[in-house]
User: Fold this.
Amino acid sequence: MAETPATSPKATSKKMRRQEAEALILSAAEKVFAEAGFGGATMQLIADVAGLPKANLHYYFPTKELLYRQVVQKIFQIWLQAADIFDQADGPEEGIGAYIDAKMEISRRHADGSKVWASEVMHGAPVIQDYLETTLTDWTNGRIEVIERWIAEGRMAPIDPRHLLYMLWATTQHYADFGHQIDTLNGGSPLDDKQWEAAKSNIKTIILRGIGATE
Amino acid sequence: MAETPATSPKATSKKMRRQEAEALILSAAEKVFAEAGFGGATMQLIADVAGLPKANLHYYFPTKELLYRQVVQKIFQIWLQAADIFDQADGPEEGIGAYIDAKMEISRRHADGSKVWASEVMHGAPVIQDYLETTLTDWTNGRIEVIERWIAEGRMAPIDPRHLLYMLWATTQHYADFGHQIDTLNGGSPLDDKQWEAAKSNIKTIILRGIGATE
DNA sequence: GGTCTTCCTGACCGTATGGTCAAATTCAGA
DNA sequence: TCTGAATTTGACCATACGGTCAGGAAGACC
Assistant:
């Protein structure tokens, strides 16, 4: 009768602090939302993964929508963080190269979050449309300016910055969102360290050479 | 065969043929599954979109899973069709260029199907895992051989064919799967003909130059 | 100990969903 | 016109889901 404990990440103390309880639930929710989608996920399953009774989830997160929203916001923060790397660079080779590395690292370390984000956008961004229109739009426009400056300075070929950004997002996210397909084509095993390095290296080689940012 | 009178979404006669009824339902299902995901889609909503009573859906497709499976298989067929273009080419510039065009056309014309496929893979391919392991694996290995030959012949740079294929899939699919995000960044409007051409052109420029397949 | 706040949870509820069914309707061919 | 198969459909059912609630348990502070 192993009903309560099982494989619960944290189930030692009887009472939890708000912060750790929320973190535990958010982590379980991210996993379940990634695997089943918003509609396919159930509060009961999230509760099981977190090792808590369902009613406890509703104590911290009144509704499923609210819980989902927080999961999406969390990954968006990580996403934005990586984006900063873009600015700290001197030129396209360094900036875009580092950005690819950072985004690939996110795809590897936060694959579930990436999937939730992808799912959200794919279904028309019902809960984070405002983020797309404000934060993401601003960030994108800022980066476009940077790229245009690089082009004007002759440090890379004159390509449309928008489509370059889309290519960067698409290619790096692909390793998270389509990770299962990649694993299957890899004989059923996840990419190992070496293969991830090869992926990053190949992507950087193709894109940096493609935009004429290599010497 | 050529005896189908007035094939419109709403048929004139009270009774439908199996073929057209199934096509109508599959089309509605593709749309709803794309917008809501498998878990979020309901048979009632699909029925409403198709303009049929729910019980009628179950007459043609006994279960939701079965209906979903057919939708996924349908888009996979289209996907494979485009893949043929790869072979009919003489070299990388022509072959990969045409493949990008074809996949971009699919992203534009079959955005819903692309989303369903992406969703399916993202959730671990519960219904088409066998396709990944057989058809897709075979196709991929075949294309890897072609690319390796091109490399051996000195017609493109020595990059890992796998990661090149992933980049092609990722970049082209992105315009369907993340179409909503792209539209939002485009001021809320879908890309027009000119913008789609620009997208294709930019992608081809970057990738073909990136793999050293241009003169 | 007493008391207040925070946290925990089993039991419960209304609703929506996938699926069933049997009766009605349509239609092709005899 | 008659007959049997194919199709259509409203009504129905069991289940599972998101969410509620009342009462109990665990600390914190005096």
